[in-house]
Amino acid sequence: MSIIEPNSLLSVPTGQLQISELSLTTEGAGGEPIHFSLVIPTYKEAANIKKIVEILSGLLDEANSGNYELIVVDDNSPDGTWEIAQSLMPEYPQLRVMRRQQERGLSSAVIRGWQVARGSVLGVIDGDLQHPPHVLLQLLHAIDEGADLAVASRHLEDGGVSSWSFIRRFLSRGAQLLGLIILPRVLGRVSDPMSGYFLLRRSAIVGATLNPVGYKILLEVIGRGNMGKIAEVGYVFSERQEGESKVTWKQYVDYVRHLIRLRVSTGRLKGLSQSMTGFPIGRFIRFGVVGLSGVFVDMVILYLLHDPTTLGLPLTRSKIISGEIAILNNFFWNDSWTFADVSMQQQKWRQRLKRFLKFNIICLVGLVLNVLILNLVYNFIIPNAYIANLIAIAAATVWNFWVNLKLSWRVTQVK
Ligand code: GDD
Ligand code: MN
Fold this sequence. Notes:
The chain has helices at about 50-65, 80-90, 105-115, 135-145, 165-180, 185, 215-225, 250-265, 270-275, 280-305, 315-340, 340-345, 350-380, 385-410, and strands spanning about 35-40, 70-75, 95-100, 120-125, 150-155, 160, 200, 230-235, 235.
């Protein structure tokens, strides 16, 4: 076994981004295998690094009594983050530091860190204290209880974002929706696929060649790894106190590239058959029955408002009212029947209202989709308005169901 000089930097692995089986002879390991390795990727975090190392060490010393390591992976920050980290090593024996000069980027930094890790559990946390450290213990606990992957999520009961602008929330949700459409099998598995705060069992990604672009490494891990049980823990994404975010428009473009790449390389057939076996057929049928009841409600109200023998209101006005009442009707039945198991756990009226607003928006998008597909099918495929309409309704129903399942009545494996 090689003797490691005190306070020396880790050498940077080269070659493919692949995590190997845990072995005692791994170069640079220099010691016993340990339980938990936490990677802290940094770029220009000079103002945060000391504090986060101090907090994490305190937390893990207490819970894990030395059976862990912290691995800072810094991309040669001009503010000397790596140097500061290195100077902390005498005080924190569990701390290891890597300085990368050839490669750059958040995702690859995390993987390079995991490649030198000695733990059977691997993790990642931001270096800017926006991820609350105490959540780490809950995540570790979830893994110890048998999960292959434990994700800190902003979209659970105890989760959230502290003070994001409307536009940032909107972009974040839009990105998630796009991902759900392109890669439902991956993004559908967690409530916060954009999370950069998670732990996983090494065995769940051993051998997979990871190849992420941009920021969203969790997608890569779920897409290419072999994740059985997934657990989630809610957390609040707090404000940055020091330094600044490195997110630019490029990250949004990278994200879309990443989705498409994963979609193509993980194969069509596999994706289809897997998503079919997991398809909640009973729920879908109930959703369809509720949808039919909505059609009936819509018709009756339209009649009552518009018919010359009744109120005789103008058609558009009548239809807007009848359509909205139908949506209300559908929401009521879906909430108390189709998704009763989910809504029972979230009964506060604010939560109900939130579900209703989401349901409403999603159904409105469904309506636009309905009209678009009707036109497309009618003009280019089957020139019969009623058959075309049936196809459009079927497509919109699948959309309404799937997106509501994932966003309004979120079914997660969380207790
Ligand atoms: N080594 C390395 N190289 N680290 C980087 C790089 C890089 O190119 N770019 C960013 N980092 C580090 C930052 O120093 C920080 O510790 C962490 O990665 C997150 O970067 P931020 O720029 O602070 O990202 P954010 O706060 O906007 O986004 C975070 O929240 C997202 C959830 O919306 C990140 O945690 C994302 O991973 C997460 O998805
Ligand atoms: Mn940040």
